[in-house]
Design goal:
Layout lengths: L15 H11 L24 H18 L8 H4 L5 H7 L4 H28 L2 H17 L3 H15 L9 H19 L8
Helix pairs in contact: 5-6, 5-8, 6-7, 7-8
Amino acid sequence: FLEAGMDDYVTKPVEPVKLAEVLERWLPKGEDGGNAGRQGGEAGGASMESPQEDRSRSETLRAQAALEEGDAISGRIEEDVAAFDKADFLRRMGGNEALAMGILGQAVQELPTMVADLREVLRKKKKKAIQAQAHTLKGTAATVGAAALSALARKIEDAAKNDELDDQSDLAPKINEQWERFSQAVSESGLTKPGTV
């Protein structure tokens, strides 16, 4: 992106802390030398994560790195990647449980339709529609910490791009399986209101 002439960028899923850091670099400075309206942040950049959260973050980063490098999660997605990474999701939400609950509430309403839409275009073998729908599902799932569902959506998107869908006949059932795993993990997380998942 920078080589194309952009001054900066934020990758998806957007993390509020990283977005604030980029905005701070580019927004005009206030009279006190800081950015106008700047709020909070970690003191001195020190990590405030517990060892468990740190381990969870490391696992998530490894999974994301594998995806970014195009390693494509194996057929054992359900064993390799967490269905829902609560610690990482809360970290990306700045520890704000109310915000996390609101975003998860919206996601559990929208994801079933996205999953159904992707299954439908897979059934009809519409390559461009598969790519678009898988891309949308990948991003939304990543935003809410549904790492395995996001990884599977990426695998489907890549298969459509590379004209390899015929070799992936088991993808549609896996989509439902990963949605169910995520839904179950979210309902057990304590971050949703009873009866919303």
